[in-house]
Design a protein that fits this description.
heterodimer, A: mainly alpha, 16 helices, B: alpha+beta, Alpha-Beta Plaits, 2 domains, elongated
Chain lengths: ~425, ~200
């Protein structure tokens, strides 16, 4: 093969231009967010209550009887929660992808491993935000946090929810949340430390250490990703449960994480970094995006068809709330289209996975699509008929996006872009399929 | 017209020699019929100048045909021919049809592609495989050049292949009779000689 030379020591510079565009996104996001808040606070207040009354009279039933009065700030809190869960997911999937590469002894990705590695640096910020958001909005988001549900003498007593008390109680819940966030962050720190030491020391010692840490992380993540999906998302619809939910949230996280990694690589390559990357690398990573968008559909449909076919009211309520609603039903079909049909058809051919333009379009679509997936998981159970999609949602998502990109790019600029002492680096530099 | 086939066979020991050899030989204007290797060689199909395969399109067509057939079948059975209420669902309940349609898509795509492969490569029960050198299943790379396809003389080609580091170059002829399998003969052979000694194996050296 032809001998090529690359700048192995290249470093990513978080340039002023890049910073400017991140701050532009942040600025637009803030403006949208403020417009959203103002229009909520002054615009629809009177209309909102009227609508709520009509709804409660109509098909209120069970949960509404002891539901909480809706206040427009709930919508902000719910949106904070959606974005937190989504971006924490992107960040942890970066670490998960990184770990898989080590556990599987993957060589092709050795040159690009700094990108998913940097994703993990959002964990502490996302984690703290998560706890803060939970602390001041658990009452509106999580129905089960109402103590009177567990009190037999109270008119609000709910036998089903009371039966779940051993799992869904405040100390255990917050304990799990803190434990997962802290342990994930510790794993990130450990892997990052070894990875940076490898750059200095060389040799294979660090590689084997990282493999051990990565394997332990994968085992921990297998359990914690499921449990966090039950906790952070499924417990919103407290009565309802699905045994596939852990996988469902994981699939959504994973495909959006992969799309984010792929997109970062495209932007880095177009900015002139990672010159060794060829179409083969992009083909490999986008095969994963393609495959996991089908995997997500499989899980989505698997969950849907079981509930649809069994037709048990306590299970179907989840889809009734979404499909029979004027507001949410259109999102279900949009969700299926943008997360399955579009990437499936656009990414099917070999050439499509290798072309920068198509990669950008599909990966951005997948990211937007899976944001909507989380929107659909969280909003109907919390906001019910008050849910909306406006400046507030878009603005807040942009603020989170800008924060995420800023943190990741900042971390990326602090270490060499290529792990020059990775034992399998040559395989990655000459990767060709 | 000469119906017999005349080939020049080059034996290569090393995969890099073969890879560069293929490039050199093609550069000198010799058309290569086929290369047989004991294991896949990365970049060989590129060096041989193969065009993009139409196989994925065929697979898509087979799969799409499977989807259409499955949906037609289920709609015909469940909604038109013998409507039944199952689980309180409407007769025409699309979600119920998805698993079967998916499986049928996969089934038809895989069967279709297997059969397509067998037909295109001529791997039919009675077909006589044109085996150039049995060592291509062991440790040698075998290159076959069809003399009728090339305007250069046999001697010229021979020296070109030798220059490309071929270990061994020799001529291999297949008679017309050898090339033409007959299904009838195959069946008769099968009955008279049994599977192990049918006409397919007779010609190998």
């Amino acid at each position: 093969m032809k001998a090529k030379s690359y700048d192995i020591d290249e470093r990513f510079v978080f340039s002023d231009g890049a910073k400017k565009s991140v701050f532009t996104i942040l600025g637009i996001g803030l403006v949208f967010f403020v417009i959203g808040i103002l229009s909520l606070a002054f615009g629809s207040e009177s209309g909102g209550t009227e609508h709520a009354l009509a709804f409660a009279g109509g098909e209120g039933g069970g949960e509404h009887a002891h539901g909480h009065a809706y206040h427009w700030t709930t919508r902000i809190k719910v949106n904070l929660w959606i974005n937190n869960v989504f971006f924490i997911g992107l960040s942890i999937i970066g670490l998960f992808f990184f770990s898989i590469q080590y556990a599987a002894h993957a060589g092709w990705s050795a040159g690009i491993k700094r990108v998913p590695e940097a994703f993990g640096s959002f964990l502490p910020i996302g984690g703290v935000l998560m706890l803060v958001v939970f602390a001041f909005s658990y009452h509106e988001i999580f129905h089960w946090t109402d103590a009177s549900l567990f009190d037999k003498t109270s008119p609000n007593y709910d036998e089903i929810i009371a039966g779940k008390q051993p799992f869904l109680n405040m100390p255990f819940y917050v304990g799990r949340m803190v434990l997962f966030l802290v342990v994930w962050y510790l794993f990130y720190l450990a892997l990052r430390k070894q990875s940076l030491l490898e750059d200095i020391e060389g040799g294979t010692k660090r590689f084997w250490k990282m493999k051990t840490i990565a394997t332990l992380f994968i085992i921990f993540f297998a359990i914690s990703s499921s449990v966090s999906a039950w906790d952070w998302v499924m417990s919103i619809d407290t009565h309802w449960f699905s045994t596939m939910f852990g996988w469902y949230v994981f699939a959504s996280w994973h495909v959006s994480g992969l799309a984010a990694i792929s997109l970062s690589l495209v932007f880095l390559k177009e900015a002139g970094y990672l010159k060794f990357m060829t179409e083969s690398h992009f083909h490999d990573i986008n095969k994963l995006v393609f495959g996991f968008s089908i995997f997500w559909t499989y899980i989505w449909f698997g969950q849907f068809i079981l509930i649809y076919y069994a037709n048990i009211p306590e299970e179907t309520i989840y889809f009734v709330e979404r499909l029979e609603s004027d507001h949410y039903s259109k999102f279900i079909f949009f969700n299926l289209f943008i997360n399955f049909f579009f990437p499936f058809l656009a990414f099917m051919t070999r050439d499509a996975k290798r072309k920068m333009t198509i990669i950008k379009i599909v990966c951005i679509a997948v990211l937007i699509g899976h944001w909507f997936d989380f929107y659909l998981m969280i909003t109907p159970g919390t906001l019910k008929e008050h849910g909306g999609l406006g400046f507030l949602e878009v603005g807040l998502a942009m603020i989170y996006l800008a924060t995420f990109v800023y943190v990741v790019a900042n971390t990326l600029s602090k270490a060499p872009l290529i792990a020059k002492n990775h034992p399998m680096l040559q395989e990655s530099l000459h990767h060709s399929i | 017209m000469d119906k017999n086939k005349h080939f020049l066979v080059g034996i290569f020991n090393d995969q890099d020699d073969l890879l560069h050899g293929v490039e050199d030989i093609r550069k000198k204007g010799v058309k290569i019929h086929e290369v047989f290797t004991p294991f896949p060689i990365h970049g060989l199909e590129h060096a041989l100048g193969y065009e993009k395969s139409w196989a994925p399109k065929a697979a898509f067509m087979f799969g799409f045909l499977g989807t259409c057939l499955a949906i037609t079948m289920q709609v015909g059975m469940m909604a038109i021919d013998w409507p039944m209420v199952i689980g309180g669902k409407p007769y025409l309940s699309i979600p119920d049809f998805v698993p079967v349609s998916f499986e049928f898509t996969v089934l038809l795509a895989s069967y279709g592609m297997t059969l397509t492969f067998l037909f295109v490569r001529g791997y039919l029960p009675h077909a006589v495989p044109r085996i150039f050198d049995i060592r291509s299943t062991d440790d040698k790379h075998v290159m076959a050049i069809d003399l009728a396809n090339n305007s250069l003389s046999e001697e010229q080609i021979r020296s070109i292949v030798k220059d490309a580091h071929a270990e061994e170059v020799y001529r291999r002829d297949f008679t017309d009779e050898e090339n033409k399998g007959s299904f009838l003969k195959y069946v008769v052979d099968l009955f008279t000689n049994g599977v192990t000694r049918s006409s397919r194996i007779a010609h190998h050296r």
